[in-house]
Amino acid sequence: MKVKMFVIFLIFLFVATTSLYGCGDRKTIDGVTYGTYGLLNEGSKRNENIEYEVIWGNVVWSVILIETIVAPIYFLGFSLFEPVGKIDHSLPKGAVRD
């Protein structure tokens, strides 16, 4: 019984620790560091001249940890998009950059 409780505790500890780390990274572009943003802080964090991509790892963690309520709020609310580079305004709208 003690071994079973210890294994359950280790699994809980692993899930709790990994849920605190998002999969997105900050990126420095032209000497300025841009961080991730989500649905709750889009107005204050998103830069119109920077291209962002969805952090699929955080979407997966949000689905896996949906029952915790706190993890999806963090991942989707504050860490859903990560910066990837500057927007190239010379490309026509809708063009895909390689």
Percent of residues in beta strands: 15-25%
Helix-and-strand structural type: alpha+beta
What percent of the residues sit in helical stretches (DSSP H or I)?
25-40%
Strand order of the largest sheet: 1-2
Oligomeric state, counting identical vs distinct chains: single chain
Number of helices: 4
Overall pLDDT level: 85
- How far apart lie the N and C ends? 56 Å
Broad shape: elongated
What value does the Rg take, in angstroms? 18 Å
As residue ranges, the low-confidence spans are none
Reported for the largest beta sheet, the result is:
2 strands, antiparallel
Could you state the order of secondary-structure elements as H and E? HEEHEHHE
**Total strand count, please?**
4
